[in-house]
Amino acid sequence: MMKHAPEIAIIDANTLSALGLQNILEELIPMATIRIFNSLSALVEDTPDMYAHYFISAHLYMEHTAFFIPRKKKAIVMAGESQSFQLSGVPILNIYQPKEMLVKDILKLHQHAHHRGNPPEAMPPKRMLEHELSAREVEVLVQITKGFINKEIADKLNISLTTVITHRKNITEKLGIKSVSGLTIYAVMNGYVEADRI
Hints:
Layout: E1 7-11, H1 15-28, E2 33-37, H2 40-45, E3 53-57, H3 58-63, H4 65-68, E4 75-79, E5 92-94, H5 99-115, H6 126-129, H7 135-145, H8 150-157, H9 161-175, H10 180-189
Parallel strand pairs: 1-2, 1-3, 3-4, 4-5
Helix pairs in contact: 5-10, 7-9, 7-10, 8-9
């Protein structure tokens, strides 16, 4: 049987919050299947153990800790700075922060999970990785993840503006990723940049 794209569950009674996170995750991991559940019982009625990760609201996690303790390597608790409880071995994602910071934190969580020896289920699907980038395209990609505009990239790499635009077009076509945040997660997941440096 073929390996499917990662499946992610968002368990949150707050529909607006869940849809916002779903939107960000779809941008970061375009081939992932992301499902939203408004309660734990709705997740349990599905096939709960098929998911690579569970993004769960703090209050639902606390109400159903017994369910998530055996699955804590897959659980990510969505909380805010004011919710300063400590959960042993469970990563916490501060959802009350700007999108750029949220994306960085999601990338850091992925890196942390990857280094703990968890299976790389959240890696981009092979279709995304089939087209190797050239060395120069990787250099341009790294500059994009640092937030530089085309003119700055041209100056830093000592190439023409037209060449930068051509490389950006090639990168987008090869990877099928248009957004800067999507390119950033690709760069982090493939070891071109570290999440701490973006």
